[in-house]
Each structure stands twice: as structure tokens, then as C-alpha cells.
Amino acid sequence: MVQNASLTQNIFRPEKSKGGFCFSTFFLILLIILMVNLIIVLVMNQVVTFIVLLIITSIMFIIFGVFGLGYYNMKYEFLEDRLLLKSGIYKSSVVYNTVSVLGKPNSYKLSGIRTNGVAIPGYLAGHFKIFFDGKLETVRLFVTKMNKLVLLRGKDSNGAERVYGVSPKDEEGFITALKSRCTSAEETRFDPEKLLTQDESNSLKYASRSRNIYYFSIILSTLTVLFIIVSYLFLPDIIPIHYNIVGAPDAWGNKISYFILLFCVIAFEVFFTLVFYHTFLKRSELRKTKYGSIIMIIPLSICFVFFILVIIFSIAIFFTIL
User: Fold this and answer.
1) Which of 67-71, 82-86, 112-116, 266-270 is predicted least confidently?
2) Comparing C-alpha atoms, which of 196, 175, 191, 171 is closest to residue 284?
3) d(Cα 216, Cα 40) in Å, to the nearest integer?
4) Both 130 and 265 in a single domain?
5) Same domain for 166 and 223?
6) What is the pLDDT of residues 152-195, one digit of tens each?
7) Do residues 11 and 112 both lie within one domain?
8) Which domain holds residue 275?
9) Considering its fold, how many domains does the chain have in total?
10) Does 141 share its domain with 67?
11) 162 and 48 in a common domain
């Protein structure tokens, strides 16, 4: 009965997970932070800042709305000649006669990187680079629960071959329906635990490069903190804490509140860098590839931007009070 039903079923839905809750919670927290800032600048009568924050809030609301909708409208649809995978703005199609293998992974712990998409607990959608069978594969994921993960290798309508991952609620029915349409597909097991096959010297070189970028990020953060401490010692108690669009100070306050804010930013920056390297990259085989250093450029860029901004703001304050 299950097999017959799966052959006539054209649309499969993913297994429900905590992805929707996690995404909604994160969005709500971000929205509250932005709204609090909007209220603060409105009370301070900072019209230009209020407008800018309002625009940012609106853009964030639209972006999160689009990606959040992707979790709830995710589906796997069997069309006449291809399988359509959809989640929000992400959509892929797999031509039936190009599917060579399909099956389950040996392990649900995947090692890779998101290149364009959503990656939170219970919600993976978009483009990824993931290790399978000793190779870094281009993967399209439409997944809500890893223990329901089904993988297949095939080509899209443009002839590009890649791996696709789905997590249907009716896992057995989905595989049966897919096998009935992909007659040349072989069922196999994907191995995400097999280490990357490459030259050992290149592995050490890439791992060392990733580690050095991490150290440089920490050094930048340390220099930023030192610069804040030195600036604090030479500043008067009352300083400008906001500048209008023409660069003139329009709000003043105690220097403690200003530098507490800066230290909070630096704390976030250091925490972000530590988490990025130690909980993600250091445990992944990606650190042994060129992608490791590319990933670490993200926290390095954040550290560098904050370093420059702190210097600019501090110089502006000194020139104002002189």
C-alpha cells in the first residue's frame, strides 16, 4: 500500500523540525534590538539616524521574511521529466535520467561550508560545499532534519552535475517514488567522514594560512582594545557621542557610556572570531583547503572594519574637543 501510494504521490514535504522556531526567535531578537535603537534615536531627536535605522530595519524584515518563508514552503515535487526542489528563493531541478546514485549518508555530521543560503539548526537550504567520498562536492540542500537526509547525484536542465540533499517526512515513499522514475540510479551510501585526498604539504600550507589569519584577527582586536583604553585616559568626562550628516556633534554624553558600547562591540568581534575558528573551522577538513583561509577572511574583515571605525571616531572626538 505504501509503495503504490508513493508512486502516485507527486509532492513530498520535509519533516518538521525546530528550524522554524530557531529562525523566528533569531528574527524576533534582532527586530527587538533594532526597535530599541529606533526608540532611543527618536527620543534623542536624531532624525537622520532614525531614518537610516528605519530603512535598515525594513530591509532586514523583508530579507528575514523571505528566508523564513522558505522553511514553511519547502517541498519536493515530481514533475513529468524532473524532480523540482524548492525552498523560498532557492529552487533546483534534477532530470530523472541523469540521476546516477541515490541513498543515505554513513554519518549525519557533514563537513563543509555554506556558500549561499540558510544554515541554522533544523533548516538548511541553498548552495553548499561539502565533503563526500574524499571530494569537496557542490551540493544543493533542502533539509530540515539530518536523520531524514536522502542524497542523490544528478544533473539539472543545464547539464551541471551536483549532489542534492532532501529530508522528506515519508522517507521510504520518496525513495520508492524516485527509484521508479530514475531507472538507471544505483542505491549507495555516501561517506562524509572520508578525509580529503590531497597532497599533505598543501594540507599543511592551507591549515597554517587559516591559523595565521585567525591570529591576525585576534591581534587586530587587541590593538583596538588598547587604542580604546589609551583614548579613554586622555579624553574629558563629557564627549560628543553622535555626529550629524555634516559631521558636527549634535549629542554629548559621559565618555564611560560611549566606551562601554565600543567594548561591547569588540567583545562581540572577539567572540565571533573565536567561535568561527574553534567550533567550526578547526574541527573541519576545510581548514586543509583553500576554502579555510577564505572563511577566516570573514571575521578578519569584521575586525579590520571595527579597528578603522574606532580610530576614525576617536580622532573625530579629539578634533571636536580641542
Assistant:
1) 266-270
2) 196
3) 35
4) no
5) no
6) 999 988 888 999 999 999 888 998 888 888 888 888 888 776 55
7) yes
8) 200-321
9) 2
10) yes
11) yes
Do both 150 and 23 map to the same domain? Answer: yes
pLDDT of residue 85: 95
Q: Which amino acid, one-letter code, is at 143?
A: V
Domain end, chosen from 162, 194, 226, is at 194
Classify residue 139 by burial, with Cβ atoms within 10 Å: 0-12, 13-18, 19+. buried
Q: CA-based angle 217:219:224, to the nearest 5?
A: 95
The answer to whether residues 149 and 214 belong to one domain is no
Q: Which of 148, 167, 194 is the last residue of a domain?
A: 194
- Grid-cell match 530557531, residue found: 22
**The three three-digit cell numbers of residue 91, written as one number:** 529552487
List the one residue out of 137, 11, 153 whose CA is nearest residue 95. Answer: 153
Q: Which three cell numbers stand for residue 123?
A: 533548516
Give the side-chain half-sphere CA count within 13 A for 67.
20
pLDDT band of residue 2 (cuts 50, 70, 90) is: very low
Mean pLDDT calculated for residue range 108-115: 77
pTM of the model: 0.66
109 and 55 share one domain: yes
